[in-house]
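User: Hi! I have a protein structure encoded as tokens and I'd like to know what sequence might fold into it. I'm fairly new to this, so please keep things simple.
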């Protein structure tokens, strides 16, 4: 089943930081795939803008290499056409270089203009000022910004003030690429498109929900950034919170940007403060030929966490009494991201006590292979009485939808949403601030206590205390697949 491609109007996408890691790793390959799908119609342009002194031809070579390195393609016959739609401007975000040239390039048409700020947040104000000063932004323009969106409530508010000082909130697209994942959107389709689940989607029927985002990689070349951020700021405050919102929110009246974002905001605001004994922080140590976190961030006394697990509660009618367990970490035993909704046991077992405990679990697998599984209890086949087993009803999307099913990368989907002007999958200012308002006291708490993360061996499931967090409630984490 090939996916349907919805045409878009011609556009100009300016990527500030167009030579950087994010642009080469994600934005350029995503745009090439959309070009191949016919979603970068003729007069559309990608304009790279960065500090490097390159000609347009030189930048096209950067793009060619990025596709090879990160897009796994030499571009094939489509490459030349794609490169032909690419321009480059050497620009200084903090000075005067390049702004006239960029303005002249954009002035030749009235396409939708999207400005992707793929640079550190320290440059947002400089870029915004210069875009306004050169009158490049009109009502039809969009600004795309990446995480990290602040490092606490105060800095997030300051960033919002900067951006909202120059642009309308309706023009600002704050990316959380988890929201662009096909399965994450499927979560909403499964919940709100079927009668089956929604009546059971509450504390009466659901024992608990667990969300795991496990990575095998360490901090890579981002040691300095990560040492200041840690797993709480880098992953929990944004990606895991967004997943929590989608799983816990009330049905919006319509699948429209503010209707969806209003419901997500209510979830964040309903979160109770987290008790200190419901938080486990960890830091990986060396193992299997990789060095430990402290060496990776070049700080032998680092107190930054590379792993966090916590239990939280939502004080609202639907979820009172159902705990949510969230964990994320680096250098874990597998790259495995999943949400598991664990339903309560049947109220009475008619098959007697010997058949064991059985319950339904709905697992939404985000990576590596996107899909949804529902564990159901059935009779074990064969003679010998009524023995029960749990078997998965597996809906691997690749299998169910066929080999041609096209699961676009999150960035493909999100960039096209920017061009179409659809903000549903982007975070609004108040959402980001509410998430920090919940996160800040947690971080301040461990800073005040001088909390040191628990060490864990690289390529395990994290510190033992994370297992205990669940076990003392009589529950278990689902295994991390390696
Ligand atoms: P990078 O250091 O690799 O690239 C920075 C880019 O900004 C370069 O193109 C550089 O030329 C340009 N630049 C820097 N100073 C400039 C100036 N004064 N004027 C004009 N251009 C300037 O950074 P990156 O990894 O691509 O990250 C960009 C942003 O995206 C950061 O905020 C980062 O936190 C965020 N981000 C990155 C990733 C990733 O995978 N790399 C993932 C999520 C978010």
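Assistant: Happy to help. Inverse folding works backwards from shape to sequence: for each of the 482 positions I chose a residue that suits the local structure. Here it is:
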């Amino acid at each position: 089943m090939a996916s349907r491609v919805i045409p878009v109007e011609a556009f100009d996408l300016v990527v500030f930081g167009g030579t950087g890691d994010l642009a080469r790793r994600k934005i350029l390959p995503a745009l090439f795939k959309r070009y191949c799908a016919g979603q970068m119609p003729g007069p559309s342009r990608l304009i790279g803008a960065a500090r490097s002194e390159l000609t347009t031809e030189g930048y096209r070579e950067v793009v060619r290499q990025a596709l090879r390195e990160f897009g796994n393609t030499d571009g094939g016959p489509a490459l030349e056409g794609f490169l032909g739609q690419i321009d480059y401007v050497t620009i200084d975000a903090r000075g005067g270089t390049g702004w006239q040239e960029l303005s002249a390039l954009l002035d030749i048409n009235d396409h939708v203009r999207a400005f992707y700020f793929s640079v550190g947040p320290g440059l947002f104000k400089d870029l915004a000022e210069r875009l306004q000063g050169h009158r490049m932004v009109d009502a039809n323009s969009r600004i795309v910004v990446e995480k990290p969106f602040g490092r606490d409530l105060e800095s997030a508010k300051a960033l919002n003030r900067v951006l909202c000082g120059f642009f309308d909130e309706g023009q600002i697209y704050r990316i959380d690429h988890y929201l662009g994942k096909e399965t994450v959107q499927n979560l909403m389709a499964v919940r709100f498109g079927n009668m089956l689940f929604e009546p059971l989607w509450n504390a009466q029927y659901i024992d608990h929900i667990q969300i795991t985002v496990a990575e095998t990689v360490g901090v890579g070349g981002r040691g300095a950034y990560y040492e200041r951020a840690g797993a709480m700021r880098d992953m929990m405050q944004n990606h895991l919170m967004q997943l929590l919102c989608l799983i816990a929110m009330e049905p919006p009246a319509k699948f429209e940007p503010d209707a969806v974002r209003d419901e997500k905001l209510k979830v964040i605001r309903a979160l109770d403060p987290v008790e200190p004994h419901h938080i486990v922080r960890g830091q990986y140590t060396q193992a299997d030929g990789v060095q430990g976190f402290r060496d990776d961030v070049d700080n032998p006394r680092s107190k930054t966490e590379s792993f966090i697990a916590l239990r939280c509660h939502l004080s609202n009618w639907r979820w009172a009494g159902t705990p949510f367990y969230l964990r994320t970490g680096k250098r874990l035993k597998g790259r495995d991201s999943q949400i598991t909704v664990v339903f309560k046991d049947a109220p009475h077992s008619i098959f007697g006590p010997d058949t064991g405990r059985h319950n339904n679990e709905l697992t939404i697998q985000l990576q590596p292979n996107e899909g949804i599984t529902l564990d159901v209890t059935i009779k074990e086949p064969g003679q010998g009485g009524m023995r029960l087993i749990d078997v998965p009803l597996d809906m691997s999307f690749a299998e169910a939808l066929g080999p041609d099913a096209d699961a676009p990368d999150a960035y493909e989907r999100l960039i096209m949403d920017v061009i179409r002007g659809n903000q549903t999958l982007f975070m609004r200012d108040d959402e980001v601030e509410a998430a920090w308002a919940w996160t800040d006291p947690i971080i301040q708490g461990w800073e005040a206590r001088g909390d040191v993360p628990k060490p864990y061996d690289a390529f395990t499931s994290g510190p033992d205390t994370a297992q205990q967090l669940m076990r003392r409630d009589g529950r278990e984490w689902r295994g991390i697949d390696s």
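A useful reference point when you look it over: The chain is about 35% helix and 20% strand. Feel free to ask if any position seems puzzling.
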